[in-house]
Specification:
By secondary structure, the chain is of the alpha+beta class. The protein has a domain at 445-596: Heat Shock Protein 90, CATH 3.30.565.10. It has helices at 32-99, 104-109, 111-122, 157-167, 214-223, 261-269, 301-400, 404-427, 438-455, 473-493, 499-507, 558-570, 591-596, and strands spanning 127-134, 139-142, 176-177, 181-182, 189-198, 204-212, 231-236, 242-246, 273-277, 281-287, 293-300, 435-437, 460-466, 470-472, 522-530, 534-541, 573-578, 583-590. Strands 1, 2, 3, 4, 5 and 6 form a six-stranded antiparallel β-sheet that branches. Strand 9 and strand 10 (281-287) form a beta hairpin. The longest helix has 100 residues, at 301-400. It is elongated and about 130 Å long.
Amino acid sequence: MNGLALPPFSDDSAGSGRTAADGAQPFRKPRLEAAIGWLAACGFLFLAVVTVVVGVQSRQRAVDGAQERARAAVRVLAEHAARLFDAADLLVEYAAQESAGRPWEEVAGSRALWNRLNAQRARLPFLDAVWLNDATGLLRLTTAAFPAPYSNASDREIFLFHQRNAQQGRGIDQPHIGPRIIGRVTNKATFLLSRRLSDRDGSFRGIASVTIDPSYLSGFYKELDVPHEPVTILVRAGSLDVLVREPAQAAEPAEPAPLSDTTRRAIQAQPDGGVARDDTSIVAHRRVDSWPVHVVVRLDLAPVLVSWQRVIAPYAGLAAAAAMALAALSVFGFRQAGAARQVQRELERRVRERTASLEKTIGERDAVLAQKDLLMREANHRIKNSLQVVSSLMSLQSQAVGDPKLSDHLLEAGRRVQAIADIHRLLYRVDDVHFIPFHDYLTELCRELERSARSEGGDWRLELVVEPLEVPTDHAVQLGLLANELVMNAIKHAYRPLAATVASTMAGPQAGTAEPARGAANVIFVGLRRDDEALRLIVGDRGVGLPADFDWRRSRSLGMRLIHTLSRQLGASLTVENTSPGVRFTISLPHRTFDSGSPE
């Protein structure tokens, strides 16, 4: 092609346009061996970069995947803890309701109440026992034994919490989760969920509580399917005391290992939940809905990176194999470069000859095409000028004749000629003479007809809903004449003062007698759109409409006969509908007819 011939590789100064005799350094073109060397170097560099990028990205994906799994695990654990605490709180409320209004002596000696509470507790395997303590902290009833053994909780944190809130007059029915303790009756590690008991006057009556078994939660955390052996922790909000840790890290079950500084900072920075990461671990945490506890999942990065290394190892082997293959190809290329140089010289000669021939051919073709385009534009311009002259002569002649009917006929003929002239005006303006922007033509035509109608009197308004469409030049003249005839037909006949005028003009003595509203604007709707079936040209009005027995195919009007003839020439269908008020004409040009007129 023109301008695409590249200077070929050659050795020394062969083919150069300058020699040593010129007194200047000859231009040395790069050798093929040098190009192969550079390509090999770029290939090795690209391979190294890709290997590093893939390694870094896969490592990041492995860490992000572990982080997302930790986040998902925390979400599941938080939902599980919320359901667990909700169920435990329901049992506490049940115990409070069952003991409400009864003297503590009656509560302490009621075997029936003990049986009911024990039956409810047995349905919840994560609970150890239900406890009822009076206002002094003395244990009055427990499902752990009947009658209740002696125990006093007045020094326990949960009892002091409710007692203090009662004294301050707040937190009347606020549940509370206590720290992890060793039960004085059961001698087991546990923590309590409690509620305050109040007399009818609102005074402090004691507390109702249930002990939650940490081993149940530890067992559930063990079964959670999270890779890389995470550490799962349940902590209290605020103090961040550890309630449950799996796996355990301390010898004493009542004193699990405290939270690390990283985990504390992560919870304090995002109290509602989030993910934090440092060089050694990933910490995902979430606040349990409606409860002052957090669930934490901590993953060590070391096992995650070990898994990543096992995954990336095959790719590293592939990169090494690719590097060896690239080295072998480079050696082979160097060996072939010498033989290719001889062939290249011959190809250079042939390319130069072929390029010169192509440049000459392309230049001649472009000149012919430019001349043809100029002639086509000039022809269309002259045709437009000639048609405008004819239209102007008809307009002048219409003013000179004395017969009004003949004058109207000449004016209509002039408008038809002008409609064709407008098509040719577009043809010498557009770049592709095979298609014209019919929407622009239709808009200009309607505005010109609107101005002409207003100059003759009346409040005329043409409403246009026109989609941008290009139509083949072979169809443009017929479509333009159809649009001109339909709009002019609406202007002439749709808004006559009396329907009798319409009847006499279009159909004869059987026309209707309806009359349009006086004082209203004469509105004509013009639409152009293309749907899945056809291109549609629509012209409608809100005038007197057509009589019920009107047959447009047998009309003697020149305009209707012209519309019928042009529609048949285009292979289009014409639909006429009474819209009450008014009438709507629809020209539908099927796609098969429309596309067949397009140039190849």
